[in-house]
Amino acid sequence: MDAPRTLASRRALIGLLLKMGAAYAVWFVLYDLWLLPDGRLDTWLSHVVAARTADVLAPFFDGVRVSGRVVRLGASPGIIVEDGCNGLSPLSLFVGFVLAYPGTARRRLLFIPAGLLVVSAVNVLRCAALLVVQAERPGWFEPAHRYEGLFLFYVVIFALWVAWAHLGGATATPAATPPATPAVGPATPAEAAVPLRGAAA
User: Fold this and answer.
1) What are the pLDDT digits (tens) for 90-145?
2) pTM of the entire structure?
3) Nearest-angstrom CA–CA distance, 81 and 47
């Protein structure tokens, strides 16, 4: 790889990292200073996740109950969809990457809602699976709760990142091509090279 192309790739990578860092900084400041103290967004999202989790389990299990953030299955203690488990952080992580990575505005408008639905659906399925594990295999609940959610979210978000990198529609800047060298034919008398002569002939 030639030096100009390597330099351009490094600049593009640095630009991407700076954009992602700026997007996440804005999000975390906004969340810590406004959304978290206000609490309404987290509460609404937690209630939605709990309700959708109950909807997923109801056709297959009896005794599914939901109350606010709490979902129970049969005689199990149930799970509480707390602020850290409602999927808001993975959702913001996904949106930040899509905004930072090159792509067309039209495809962003289509891809971001689709990705948000995918991440939200994965979180609902995760909560449903944890509730079933708690009811059927209580001893497995803590390891599953501690590790599978982190692994599952990052795998899904990474897959969405890869999809956006291929579907975003950004066009790579074509590499500069050197100007064509004109063909050299036999020199005419007017074009013949003039020999250099010394000051004194």
Assistant:
1) 888 889 889 888 889 999 999 999 999 999 999 999 999 999 999 999 999 998 88
2) 0.74
3) 8
Closest to 131 in 3D by CA, of 79, 80, 60:
79
Distance CA 1, CA 128 (A): 49
**Angle, helix 88-100 to helix 149-167, in steps of 10 degrees:** 20
- CB proximity list for 52: less than 8 A, separation 6 or greater: 120, 124
Give the span between the Cα atoms of 42 and 123, in whole angstroms. Answer: 14
Give the model confidence (pLDDT) of 163-196 as tens digits: 998 887 665 444 444 455 555 555 444 444 333 3
Instruction: Identify the residue whose tokens are 């400041």.
Output: 29
CB-based contact 107:167 (threshold 8 Å)? yes
